[in-house]
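Example record

The entry below shows one chain as it appears in the dataset: sequence first, then structure tokens.
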Amino acid sequence: MYCQYYQATVNTPCTHFITGILRSHEHLVFERALDGRNSSIIEFFVPQDSEAMFVDIMHHFVELGYVFSFGKKENRLKL
């Protein structure tokens, strides 16, 4: 079974804070920069049972201005 796949455009200076929060919470997701030259686009692989909590946290990050946008996409590892 594949994880749910999300991409987010983040406020680059906040990248380490965002990933640190998500990692410190029981390793909620696996994340990585989609493109090494553009570290503001992060991809997240989210276990299905953690998806609701991940979405809640990301909405909070959007409200705080740490994340500009995020959305669920087809998992590119399936292609």
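Notes for this example: The mean pLDDT is 88. The longest strand covers residues 38-46.
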